[in-house]
Write a structure and sequence with these properties.
Blueprint (H helix, E strand, L loop, with lengths): L1 H17 L20 E15 L7 E12 L2 E7 L13 E9 L12 E5 L5 E11 L3
């Protein structure tokens, strides 16, 4: 009887492991000392969208991606999380943030699609995002 109960407990525990759905993402990197964040961004909204992909030689996967609505120099922009770090979901909130261009190609404007930004979070961590949309503000 004791062996049967031990075997049943092991089976139950092994089945429970497959039910674990938590995906641990990378933690955001910290800001480097001496790096300037000259751009002022005002975050007006955050939302999560699910993106699904079907790789050629793999299985169908879906991930939650963070999108941020922000205002920069009178223009509404939408930034998409580049690092897929789920740990940032709770760190961002609407408000003012300092930012900088992560990599600027010569001849591009500050609101071009795919332009990468780094936002400095209050805990000195850096969130990276790229522009996926923009529009003018209603005056």
């Amino acid at each position: 009887m004791r062996q049967l109960s031990v075997i049943m407990a092991l089976c139950f525990c092994s089945l429970a492991m497959y039910g674990q759905k938590t995906r641990y993402g990378q933690t955001p990197s910290n800001a480097k000392p001496g790096v300037d964040y000259p751009i002022q961004l005002h975050i007006t909204g955050l939302h999560i969208r699910t993106h699904c992909a079907y790789p050629l030689l793999g299985r169908f996967t879906c991930d939650d991606v963070l999108y941020v609505d922000a205002v920069f120099d009178g223009i509404k922009i939408e930034l998409m999380d580049d690092g897929s770090s789920n740990s940032v979901f709770g760190m961002l909130s609407p408000g003012d943030y300092q930012a900088r261009l992560a990599a600027k190609n010569p001849g591009t404007i500050l609101t071009s699609f795919g332009q990468k930004y780094e936002l400095l979070l209050p805990n000195n961590a850096v969130w990276m995002g790229s522009i996926t949309g923009y529009s003018e503000l209603d005056k």
